[in-house]
Amino acid sequence: MQKGVWALVLWMLVGYGQAACPAWPQAKAEQEMERLGQRITEWNNAYWQQGSSTVSDEVYDQLAARLAYWQRCFTGETPAHSALPPLRGDTRHPVAHTGVRKLANQADVARWMRGQSGLWVQPKVDGVAITLVYRQGRLTQAISRVTA
């Protein structure tokens, strides 16, 4: 009997945690998605062009996920929303400064790692992506995402 009660409570909690799509008319949905999309674009511009983080990573990630969820609700798809800056420089990177999309949990990371070979893992320093080029033991070039 207790197992049944706990199963019911767990089912209710899981179901409650999965929010339904907002019950908005299409016009309001478009307005809200546009407003949130503009805010995210402003944050991206501040980050990439002025070098200032005007919102925490946690808030950014939550609201970017909310926008993607609303887009799935009202359009049936999630348009690619790139947070990468426009290329402005002419310096070529010897190694691509790529990132890995954020994974939700340890199981997702383990699943992703199974499909990879030759992984190079390093700590993430927020806002820093730089390649240091050494020639004959001397630093000759420092290349960031912004300078390329």
UniProtKB/TrEMBL annotation:
Gene Ontology MF annotations: DNA ligase (NAD+) activity
Enzyme class: ligase
The enzyme's E.C. designation: 6.5.1.2
Alphabetical keyword list: Ligase, Signal
Keyword flag Mitochondrion: no
Superkingdom classification of source: Bacteria
Residues of the signal peptide: 1-19
Name listed for the protein in its UniProt record: DNA ligase
Species for this entry: Klebsiella grimontii
